[in-house]
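Morning!

This is the sequence you dropped in the shared folder:
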Amino acid sequence: MTKNGVPFDVAFSMEPAMRLAACIAFGEMDGGKWNWSRMAWENGE
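The structure's back. Tokens below.
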């Protein structure tokens, strides 16, 4: 998350669910694909 301008102290003070949501949002903005049924990143297969 720090690569997207979120400072470490802010990222690590978030509740776990909010931190996961932010990581998924930033990851998808970078072109990743989150699989909600598996709760894991797609590996491109």
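Headline: The mean pLDDT is 90.

More detail when I'm at my desk.
O.
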